[in-house]
Task: inverse folding
């Protein structure tokens, strides 16, 4: 593990002792602190004013009971979370994750990352995250609705367009946001569109929001390639996952000329050498709510489903982990490197382990972190908030052009900042430092609050 600047060691030790057992949160904090050595050397005021220590402690953490009734009449009890991390730049902003693995440590890692990601977009949004250990898999629409209504019956009092604006994440898409917005509207008797983002197009949602995280990921990779006068054209790409991020990353990679030969879910991966048939994948995942094994069956001889291997065994030029945290470890990257992969970019939040990131750096494989690569989702949420505030709707093309511009400027800002702080070409340093300095400067201006 790289050593931390001596001014940052006590901060990290305090994070470890105040947040026992929250390993993902520790990992996310450490990754940022590892980039901040040159920043505190150049600007000691950040260390002196305890900006970093303050940032590691959420402004507010809400944990609540979510009771609901199954179709068969059984009472279930889940736990709900909203961690409002930083409002230095704007209302808390970040998604809700519904997955059985959700506990405070996951929500805090996501919320912490969100602060810097949101700052990097250049838009006026603070950082927060929430969710529940509820598992939507196998639940009927009616059960999902009752859960979402119960979740919002507590959450509504903490959110609002000027306070905290949740959106989707793993397990939370248009269906869940619809049920939650409906309940919010009913309880408050107000049609406050700007309170949630990722809404449906007929009830206040924005064009491109559904596609934005995946599209932004592909745009970012295209920018990385452009710095070497290259493009996605003809590149073989592996995309892990098959949820919202993965599906739209595949779509944009294909539109930009690349070919995605594999994707996955928690049961295994599908290898489709001729290129994933996206219409079929969308039908299986979004309409039938099926698995990638169903895609492989429907695709016939073209594709094979592998349940006992690793998707990173599939040879590719570019790997886009778009499933979940810590899904790509040093064994996976060793295979990618052996097979000639030259770019790894994080579509999911923190999918590459710290060891694996170091292995990639040692092998000179270009790596870009989630804070930069997947920021297109939350950036387009901020565009949705703009449209809601002005009671306007923008066209698909206009919104997509705005997204592409934002991704280009995030990319360029990362490289400029990395240069400025002595780590040329290092996207991790660039993203962390650039996001951090924007938040830190606002915190210094706003006083000790
Ligand atoms: N959950 C997404 C993320 O990780 C989007 C959050 C949002 O749109 O607020 O950035």
Result:
């Amino acid at each position: 593990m790289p050593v931390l600047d001596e001014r940052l060691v006590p901060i990290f030790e305090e994070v470890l002792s105040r947040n026992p057992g929250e390993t993902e949160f520790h990992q996310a904090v450490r990754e940022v602190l590892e980039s901040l050595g040159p920043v505190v050397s150049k600007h000691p005021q950040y260390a002196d004013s305890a900006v970093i220590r303050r940032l590691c402690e959420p402004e507010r953490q809400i944990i609540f009971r979510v009771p609901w009734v199954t179709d068969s009449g059984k009472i279930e009890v889940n736990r709900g979370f909203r961690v409002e991390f930083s409002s230095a730049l704007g209302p808390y902003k970040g998604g809700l994750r519904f997955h059985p693995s959700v506990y405070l440590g996951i929500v805090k890692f996501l919320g912490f990352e969100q602060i810097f990601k949101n700052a990097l977009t250049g838009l006026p949004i603070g950082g927060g995250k929430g969710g529940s250990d509820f598992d939507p898999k196998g639940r009927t629409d009616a059960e999902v609705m009752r859960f979402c209504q119960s979740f919002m019956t507590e959450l509504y009092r903490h959110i609002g367009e000027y306070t905290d604006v949740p959106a989707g994440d793993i397990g939370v898409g248009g269906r869940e946001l619809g049920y939650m917005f409906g309940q919010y509207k009913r309880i408050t008797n107000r049609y406050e569109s700007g309170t949630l983002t990722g809404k449906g197009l007929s009830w206040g949602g924005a064009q491109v929001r559904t596609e934005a995280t995946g599209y932004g990921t592909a745009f970012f990779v295209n920018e990385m390639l452009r710095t070497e006068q290259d493009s996605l054209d003809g590149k073989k790409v592996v995309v892990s996952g098959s949820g919202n991020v993965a599906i739209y990353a595949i779509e944009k990679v294909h539109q930009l000329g690349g070919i995605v030969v594999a994707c996955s879910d928690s049961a295994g991966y599908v290898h489709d050498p001729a290129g994933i048939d996206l219409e079929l994948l969308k039908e299986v995942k979004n309409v039938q709510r099926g698995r990638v094994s169903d895609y492989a069956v429907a695709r016939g001889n073209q594709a094979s489903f592998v349940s006992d291997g690793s998707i990173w065994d599939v040879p590719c030029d570019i790997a886009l982990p778009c499933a979940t945290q810590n899904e790509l470890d040093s064994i996976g990257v060793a295979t990618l490197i052996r097979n000639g992969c030259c770019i790894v970019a994080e579509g999911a939040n923190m999918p590459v382990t710290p060891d694996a990131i170091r292995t990639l750096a040692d092998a000179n494989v270009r790596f870009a972190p989630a804070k930069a690569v997947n920021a297109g989702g939350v950036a387009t949420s901020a565009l949705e908030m703009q449209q809601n505030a002005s009671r306007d709707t923008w066209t698909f093309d206009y919104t997509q052009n705005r997204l592409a511009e934002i991704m280009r400027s995030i990319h360029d800002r990362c490289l400029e900042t990395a240069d400025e702080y002595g780590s040329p070409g290092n996207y991790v340093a660039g993203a962390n430092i650039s996001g951090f300095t924007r938040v830190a400067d606002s915190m210094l201006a706003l006083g000790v609050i």
Observations:
- Residues 443 and 449 are 8 Å apart (CA to CA).
